[in-house]
Amino acid sequence: MNSLRKTLFACMVLIMALSAWNAGEVILGIQKEASASSMKGGLPAERAARIAQDLEQRAKIDITYAALKAAADAGSLVPEQMYRIIDYRTVHQSGDETGVYFRGPIEPLIVRANTTRTLYPHATSEIFPYDIITYAIENYGDLYGSETGQIHYREDPDLDIWAHQDWRNWMSRWWESVEGSGVFDSPKPGYAYQDFPMFNPVHLVRGGYGHIHIGDQNWLDPNGKFSTTLVFMGRASKVTMGGGSDEWIFLNPDANIVNISIGDSSSGVVYGAMSNVSIGQNNKFNKFYGNVDDVTICNGVMYNTFMKDLTASMIGSGVTHNRFDGNVYGCLIMPGVSYQVHTSDKVGEIMMMTPPGP
Questions:
Q1: Is the same domain home to 137 and 192?
Q2: Residue 42 counted as domain residue
Q3: 52, 203, 204, 248: which sits with the fewest CB atoms below 10 Å from its CB?
Q4: What is the pTM of this model?
């Protein structure tokens, strides 16, 4: 009889375990709610708590970068073992000063061995545990000058900001263009200088950067998100900006501004030349001081001023009340464009006609 009771009890435990498994997937020993399908699901505090619980269940080995790199080179990493790099920090070169490097604060990173010689690419920050980070153990010279490996992708899924660099700890050095002015507006070595973080309360983005995404409404939401003008002080390439970015400025007239996608926004100013640009619908009150090439201007764009030439671009339907002070070369104009002011030549412009219909 006792044997039968034990068998029945074991069956009940098994049934309960299977029910728990079906009710919610178990990952790394942690019961995961159906509503939280990944580490990105839920509120920041909830994600951070899940990550912390996961990390607590795995024995981490504190290690310096030098010791970790030596173990990888020697083939003595333990596969699936988690290591805590106690001395990681971002290091990179100052833009126009060869041999001058910025060294960020210590930010312990937790990584996991894939093989005896390699790590998985994903890392976790103890300071920002909900960030999505891609880390490489190799050091890079030149611009990066890294010393403890490198973060080459970082994303905050709540702010909807990502970049192919450690934007949380990237610095930019700017000089006075006028001695004693206290205005640090030049990326070239000059008089007094000041170092600025990449993201700060005055300029959301300061310096020359590439591969950056800033999502909708980051500068309008007072609840923990940025609330500021979106300013690019230097070069800019492969940048996407979500809607609601009022105002936005590309400030450097000598900068290369390429591969830019601007969502629904307004009151933008561009001092440099732009190419391969998409301007979202309902953009308005923007001013372009440099030449603009290969631009798609979506429907509803209005009250914009193009100071110089516009070439090889498409202007969508419903675009109205725009001013073109430069020449317009080889542009495709969709039906419904109205109230445009041209003070210079229109060459090779193709005006699409509204197709006939009932």
A1: no
A2: no
A3: 52
A4: 0.72
Asked if 208 and 335 sit in the same domain, the reply is yes
What 8-state DSSP symbol labels residue 83? E
Burial of 322 from C-beta contacts in 10 A (0-12 / 13-18 / 19+): buried
3-state secondary structure of 127: coil
Residue with tokens 């000063």: 97
The string of DSSP letters for 181-229 reads ---EEESS--SSEEEEESS-SS-SS-S-EEEEEE-TTTTT-TTTS--S-
CA dist 255 → 21, 113, 161, 273, 293 (Å): 56, 41, 23, 7, 15
Helix (H) or strand (E) holding 180: none
Q: Give the other-Cβ count within 10 Å of 215's Cβ.
A: 20
Give a yes or no: residue 254 inside a domain: yes
DSSP assignments along 129-149, one per residue? TTSEEEEESS---TTT--SS-
Q: How far apart are CA 112 and CA 124, in angstroms?
A: 10
Taken in order 283, 285, 286, 288, the sign of the CA dihedral is positive
Indicate whether 124 belongs to any domain: yes
* Residue of 213, 202, 118 lying closest to 164 (CA atoms): 213
Overall size of the chain counted in residues: 358
Beta pairing partners, 109:
85, 125
Cα angle: 235, vertex 241, 246; to 5 degrees: 100
> Exposure pattern of 177-205 as b/e (b: 16+ CB <10 Å)?
eeeeeeebebbeeeeeeeebbbbeeebbb
What contacts 17, CB < 8 A, 6 or more positions away? none
The answer to whether the CB of 315 falls within 8 A of the CB of 334 is: yes
Q: How far is the CA of 58 from the CAs of 53, 84, 96, 275, 355, in angstroms?
A: 9, 11, 44, 49, 66
- Mean pLDDT, consecutive 10-residue stretches, the chain (358 aa), reads 44 38 28 35 69 66 97 96 96 74 93 97 94 93 79 86 86 87 82 82 63 68 58 77 71 81 80 86 82 82 85 79 85 75 72 50
Could you tell me if 156 and 188 lie in one domain?
A: no
Domain count, the chain: 2
Residue 241 structural domain = 171-351
Q: Map residue 85 onto helix, strand or coil.
A: strand
Same domain, residue pair 91 and 183: no
